[in-house]
Amino acid sequence: MKRQRLHLKAPDNWVNDPNGFIYYKGYYHLFYQYFPYGPRWGTMHWGHAMSRDLVTWEHKGLALYPSRREDQNGCFSGSAIEVDGKLYLTYTGVRYEVVNPEDPHTCLDEQFESAQLMISSEDGVHFDNENGKEVIIPPITDPELGDRTHTRDPKIWRGKDAWYLVLGSTVKEQYGELLFYRSEDLHTWTFVNKAWKGPDYGWMWECPDYFETEGGKVLLVSPMKLLKNDEKEKNQSVCFPVEFDEETCRMEIPDEYSFIDYGLDLYAPQTTVDSEGRRVMEAWLRMPKVTEGGWIGMFCSPRVVERRGGHIYFRMHPNIRSAYSKEAAEGQQSSADGYMAVFDLNDGESVDIGGYVISRNGDHICTDRSRVYPGFEGAHLLSETPGLKEGFHLEVLVDENLIEVYVNDGEYVISNAVYGIGDRITCSRDTEIRLYITEETVE
């Protein structure tokens, strides 16, 4: 069995979006979209993993599965909240109106409806799927409010005087929007307001996540068909520095956005607050093919989200950095948990990490995975940060199927899926590289 450390991987078959990410009763809980019957997308369940420290994880099996009319064709993405010691999950239930006769795990022509459901647990592990589910927001019937089919992914939080929830939706499949709701008791929800940006920002907004940091308020969202070319995934995750008024649920969203990760492989991020009060993000790594172990889908390393002025940083979580505590000489990076390479780049320099090339071009860091991402037609092979302002210091996490390039402690990050990464590290000049691995003994 593969080790579940530093990067949480599918236990088997298929995983995608992280769900219900929360620190609860001394453990981090990460639920996730899971198809337990094969390494492909299908009728969604919620898998469940737990960790004491965000470093070492243990899969706990199924948390949610379809069990009633409103979620009979899938328990889709959502979030978690703790209230009076109980853990509450909110999620989107899907009911197909026309099932594909060739594949019961899909529908025809997107003919389905979506509702928002809630379920609770006394311990965060055991959920009564047969009798414990409650519909809190039924399928939308007013097209002026939102879309009956494409309204999903509830993110819930506690405000100053009530509970709040945001949903992603679409306006006539022309542009994405957010729907804000308020509740006094977690059971009765009232629509308050909406926010949107227009057709240039994707036709549907998935997986919204709004939160406050010490430096300001932040919106994460995953617009569908944001990009228009054929070289990259059209659906991408972006972040905005925003302003939000709780009383009116009015959100001011600027015109300019940043990608959450400039490798453009991460999607559907979700955040929570860790044991030290830091805002922490997890996201799904989109992988183009099944691994030799028969699984597909994993998650990035947890990242601390901070806003400073108009810029949003995604920093390596200190628990991850601390895990790579043993300095190793080049050629000794044989830890089962991969390794971390630390170096600075001068203009024109490059480092080749097992076939994955990282280089500096002026004030940009660039990556090329052509040699470790073979055979994918039209694949996105080259990545590049925007212009950097804080130097050219890199911390690179190297895993068998994922490389994460943290630039200037999260000023920008490039994360890429890789296949067949090699062991050799070479430099174009005399770049000093320090290598770190984890201690092999796991408590």
UniProtKB/TrEMBL annotation:
<dbReference type="InterPro" id="IPR013320">
    <property type="entry name" value="ConA-like_dom_sf"/>
</dbReference>
<feature type="domain" description="Glycosyl hydrolase family 32 N-terminal">
    <location>
        <begin position="7"/>
        <end position="307"/>
    </location>
</feature>
<keyword id="KW-0378">Hydrolase</keyword>
<dbReference type="InterPro" id="IPR023296">
    <property type="entry name" value="Glyco_hydro_beta-prop_sf"/>
</dbReference>
<protein>
    <recommendedName>
        <fullName>beta-fructofuranosidase</fullName>
        <ecNumber>3.2.1.26</ecNumber>
    </recommendedName>
</protein>
<dbReference type="Pfam" id="PF08244">
    <property type="entry name" value="Glyco_hydro_32C"/>
</dbReference>
<comment type="similarity">
    <text>Belongs to the glycosyl hydrolase 32 family.</text>
</comment>
<dbReference type="Pfam" id="PF00251">
    <property type="entry name" value="Glyco_hydro_32N"/>
</dbReference>
<feature type="domain" description="Glycosyl hydrolase family 32 C-terminal">
    <location>
        <begin position="365"/>
        <end position="436"/>
    </location>
</feature>
<keyword id="KW-0326">Glycosidase</keyword>
<dbReference type="InterPro" id="IPR001362">
    <property type="entry name" value="Glyco_hydro_32"/>
</dbReference>
<dbReference type="GO" id="GO:0005975">
    <property type="term" value="P:carbohydrate metabolic process"/>
</dbReference>
<dbReference type="InterPro" id="IPR013189">
    <property type="entry name" value="Glyco_hydro_32_C"/>
</dbReference>
<dbReference type="InterPro" id="IPR013148">
    <property type="entry name" value="Glyco_hydro_32_N"/>
</dbReference>
<dbReference type="InterPro" id="IPR051214">
    <property type="entry name" value="GH32_Enzymes"/>
</dbReference>
<dbReference type="GO" id="GO:0004564">
    <property type="term" value="F:beta-fructofuranosidase activity"/>
</dbReference>
